[in-house]
Sequence to fold (312 residues):
Amino acid sequence: MRRNLLILVLGMLLFDGWQEATASQAPWRMGLRLNSQQARRGWPLLPFSRSSPVTPVSPWAPPTINPALLSTNRAVLPETLRVLFLGNSLTAAYNMPEVLTQMSRTATLKIKATMRTRDGYTLDNHMADISSRTNISFTVQDPLVFTNRLTWHAVILQEHSQIPVYAWQRMITSVQRIDGAVRTARTRSALFMPHSRPDPIFSPAEFLDRAEGAYQLVAQRNGNLPLIPAGRAWQMVEMRANNSIQLRELDGYTPTQHGAYLNACVMYAYLTWQTPLGLSNGGLHQVNGRDAEYLQRIAWELFVSRRSGVPF
Fold:
C-alpha cells in the first residue's frame, strides 16, 4: 500500500516537472516558428527571451512600413487610362486607338490610347519586333512624383484573325510569351477578339464561334486574362435586319468608319466599366449622331450581357 502511494506521489511530481519544462519551452518553440516566418517575409525578427525574467524585453510591435514600398506605379481609379494596342490592320483601321482617345475626352473617365501595328502582324511578330517590345516597357514621368515612372495601365493584344481558328496552339504560346513581357513591365494584358472574316471552310458564325473558343482557352491558360469580344458586337449589328450600317469595306473584312467606331465603343465599355452613350464620334465624320448612339447602345448591351471587363 505504502509502495503504491509512493509511486503515485513520484509520478505526480514528475508530471508537474514535465509540465513546467514544457511550458518554459513553448514560447521558445513558438518564437522559432514566428521568427522563421518573419525572416521569410523579410520582416524584423520577433524578439523573445530565453534568459532570466529580470532581463528587460521590449514588447514586439509590427515593423514600420515605408509607404514608398507599397507603390505599384498604378493609380487608384485614375482619371485617364494609358492603354497600348498591339495588333495589325484591324486595330489600325481609321486609327481606332486615336478615335477611342478623342471620344473619351468629354467623359468622366478618359483614355489615352496609342498603338503599335503592322499589316498582317501576329503576336509572334510583335514579340520578335524590338519596337513592339520597347513600347511594352515604355514609361512616362509621374508629374506628381518626379522620381516615379508610370507604365501602361493595360496592353491590349490582338492576334491575327486566322491564328485562333487554324493555329490556336501557336496562339497559346504567343500570348504566354508576350504576356510575360507585359507582366515584367508591371502592367497587365487583355485580349481583343475582332470580327469574323470571309473563310472558304467556315461560315461567319462558325468562324467567330471557333475564334472565341480559342480566345477563351488562351485567356484561361494564361491566368484568366480579360477578353474583349468586339467581334460579338459586330455580329449583333449585322444580324439585325432593320440595320443599314455597314461595318465592313468592300473587301468584306477591313473595318469602315462605323466598324472602327464600334470597336472603340466596346473598348471604352470594357476598359472603364462605363457606358459610352453620349460620347462623341471620335472624329469619324461619317458616323452621324443617330448611328453613333446605335453603336454605343450595342457596345453597352454586349458589356452588360457578359458582365466582365478589364479590372484595375
